[in-house]
Amino acid sequence: MILSHGTLTAPEAHADATRQMLRQIAQATRQETGCQLYLVSENLETPGHFVITEQWASMEDMQTHLALPAVGEAIAAVHGMGITDLTITAWEAGTQTQIM
Amino acid sequence: MILSHGTLTAPEAHADATRQMLRQIAQATRQETGCQLYLVSENLETPGHFVITEQWASMEDMQTHLALPAVGEAIAAVHGMGITDLTITAWEAGTQTQIM
């Protein structure tokens, strides 16, 4: 299983557009093969700073997602809104511990 | 390295108190040994649903955090606000891929 953590910061003028875009991406991505979790959220300490939390069945599924035209368009839209710090990091999940 | 994903849902009457509590927990926890990331955020699709994203240097560091009296008090406060779905799952991080 793949765990992925992404963040981005929207300029204030584009914060609402970014919220709406992230909601749409989440709804679409959750329909894709291998997508086990796709949550979009906003940092409680820093409005306009967003978190994307993903879980995928495999890296192949995540790469298939990333290669979709809609994903390229979304990344272009992100850049078009002046967002320059989009970062996404993925890890293979190792031993799991249920904390609570 | 440990990756942790937590979620909880606050009743509407306690949503603001939960936001404030999560901010305080984040600020305090980031000072702890081995805490590499502690982000608290709110689901853009479901207000009142919160996400806790943690990274720890080791499971020992995370367990030391979880054993702190302040953490026990925070969990008691969560339950006191009628939050019944607090879940936290941690994984050992495997191979890392920088997606973007």
UniProtKB/TrEMBL annotation, chains A, B:
This is ABM domain-containing protein. Coiled coil: none annotated. GO terms for molecular function: catalytic activity. It comes from Deinococcus marmoris. InterPro entries: ABM_dom, AI-2_Isomerase_LsrG, Dimeric_a/b-barrel. It comes from the Bacteria. Residues 2-90 form the ABM domain.
